[in-house]
Amino acid sequence: MSLLRALFVGRKQQEPFDPNPGFVDVMPARPYLVLHADLPFYADAECRKQIRGARLVVLQCEDPLQKQRTIECMPAVKDYRKGDIVQWETNHKRLWDDAWYVNPESGSKVKAWTRAVEFIGRVYRPDTSAS
CA 20 to 30 Å from 71, out of 8, 11, 46, 55? Predict the structure, then answer.
């Protein structure tokens, strides 16, 4: 009986996938601007072997206290749009190794990361109900 119990009892129900990143109504302390979203990324420098199951987002830090505007390339399974302001949040349970992408501005092939975690940042949407 214990073998059957182990097989069937206590199984977690898998939650259905929700592509919505969620929202936050307070401007993040360190906001990031989505420069590009929904880009394919690849397992090879020639950008021929597309990695499935995620897309690349290009983020720029918009922290007014930071002099240099850092740009981050991150894998994401949630849906983001160019121009979104997002909060920096990651899921360390999902990892991707070496990846490249085609820069949509220059057309050049660029190394995105050596190892990256999933980006899951919520999108800033100001609460307009108070006004």
Answer: 46
Domain ranges of the chain: 19-123
Question: Residue 69 carries which DSSP code?
Answer: -
| Each residue's pLDDT tens digit, 96-126 | 999 999 999 999 999 999 999 999 999 999 8
Amino acid at 54: A
CA–CA separation, 73 and 46 (whole Å): 18
Residue type for 100, please? W
Q: Which two tokens stand for residue 127?
A: 């609460």
Residue matched to tokens 């950008």: 47
Q: Which of 131, 129, 120, 123 is closest to 26 using CA atoms?
A: 123
pTM metric for this prediction: 0.81
For residues 66 and 7, the answer to whether their CB atoms sit within 8 Å is no
